[in-house]
Amino acid sequence: MRLQTNKGFTLVEMVTVIIILGILVVGVSSFVILGTRIFVESSSVDQVLSQSRFVIERMTRELRNALPNSIRVASPSGAQCIEFLPITASASYISLPIAPEAAADTGSIMLPAQGINLAHKMVVYPLAPAQLYQDSPSTKQGRIFDVKQLSGNRLEFDNELRFDEASPQKRYFMVNGAVSYCFLSSGDIRRYDGYGVQTTQPTPAQMGTGALMGQHVVNNLGSEAPIHYTPGTLVNNAVVQLSPHFEVNGQTFQYQHQVQVINVP
């Protein structure tokens, strides 16, 4: 007579297997979680790095195209802002009414390659922001005026006027509104335009929502300003020093970037 043997697991074996499987699951899950965390954190850092490079490059390009002596910097509560007038066109003038000559309502110019938009304003020999940021340009004498009409290379103003000074290079510039970049205490960098030209440099609240250009800036705006501006002189170009300090996932990095405003009046 044959004896039948029972095959199976004992309770001890089953518990042992469960414990071993549990250890393996914990180890594998910990490895997966750690790998995922490293990937997410590195992706966040890469994103902020790319974002910061983009905003620095964008600011550099726009500042290099700023109207000479139109840059101004202000630090309203909770922000630091840099404002400037972008050049939309530029060329040489042939003849313009310029002091001490008599006022006139016509002039002749060389046309820029991109043409002239009559909705924009003409500027000759700008020397200071106060001469440029005017709600309505002077109707008699100044450095910035509206252009009424253009026929060939001959232009017509709204009325008889004259520019304050002649440009040593006989240059004129066309501008259309101001642009601002603001570093906010929230850590955001925002770009503003389309808010018009104001005598007093506007605050972020006065310029609307703006476009978000960057985040995670941790500069102390009171003691570690991200913007330093040195106006140009007869021998040196104007210089904007950008020193934004970024932080993400406990990692910090800082730019030390210098922009030379190469345009001269």
UniProtKB/TrEMBL annotation:
Membrane spanning stretches: 12-34
Transmembrane among keywords: yes
Keywords: Membrane, Transmembrane, Transmembrane helix
Pfam families: N_methyl
PROSITE patterns: PROKAR_NTER_METHYL
NCBIfam families in the cross-refs: IV_pilin_GFxxxE
Protein name (record): Prepilin-type N-terminal cleavage/methylation domain-containing protein
Organism, scientific name: Shewanella insulae
Lineage: Bacteria, Pseudomonadati, Pseudomonadota, Gammaproteobacteria, Alteromonadales
